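Entry for the shared binder. Reason: the reviewer on the internal report wants the predicted structure included alongside the sequence.
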Amino acid sequence: MRIGIDIRALMEGRTTGVQVYITNLLRAIFEIDRDNKYILFANSSRDIRDVLPQFQYPNVELKLFRYSNKIFNIAQKFGFPKIDRLLGGVDIFFSPHWRAVALSKTAPLIVTFHDLSFEIVPSFFTLWRRVWHKFMDYERASKRANKIIAVSENTKQDLINLYNVPADKIRVIYSAVHPAQPADYNPKYFLFFSTFEPRKNLQTVLTAYEEYCETSKVKLPLVLAGSSGWKNSLKIPTHLQDNIKVLQNVSEEQKIRLYEQAEALLFLSFYEGFGFPVLEAASAGVPVIASAIPSLLEIASDFAIFVSPFRSSQVAAAMISLEEDQGYRDMMRARGLEAAKKYSWEKTAKATLELFKSVRV
């Protein structure tokens, strides 16, 4: 087969969950499958070759077009040019993160939906992002797709409830993490790792940490790490500024080192489609304190300490419990390490390849 893949979501060089998913899934697919031909599609008026991940495989080809993206995106909404034709014809076109594409009617389309947060909690997005999502028209994409990959049962249910997508059109294929080598456990701080934006509920993290410091005899520091996002201004209480360190736009290498000495990950999002950091932490042997929201209850039910994202007192109590009870901490570490073994990119890639085969014309 000739399989076209849209990698435009990788053009910004960011490392959010979507980019982690695309990069790791494609590498795992290319390691497994040396028979099919893969044509990667990207478009930018500037040279982005240094930004894109390198996929050095004999059956993988990058086709980078140099149209103006603003003009190109509008043209795609009007149905031209047909991307499958630009790529020299494809048997399947795979969009691992939807961006508007014009395809021939006979070209099978598979789309991954990571979440529908822009539909469910639009107030957590800027006006520009809401306009962008409207322009992308995810509902139309769900209708055009021959098959849909949902990264969780929660996302599948959102697709059914919001877009009336038939259940048999959706295949739940979980994302994954790379196995980590847990370091000797010597906790030095609590860790928040995510994008700095309202949906990630950083304010409750800060309030919970302040309450923790009022009770704790140790008063471990708090590290806030991640990517800069919308409304990312941090209002750290003056009396805690010496206890809190902020690290923005950390690299993958920095992220690994941060997990190694964390007492626990605080992941208190209001909404998630999957939640990569909870699995990354579990794989590194780091206990997780997480929001009791559907997607995280689905992914992390075996190992996370669940709290209400609205109740900072619950978060602070969980932090104290981990700090004061070594047996409890060790148990939560062991649960996370065991649960993380269920998720591998090889498993994700094999399930995705099976889906490719099922829609071939």
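Summary line for the report: The mean pLDDT is 92.
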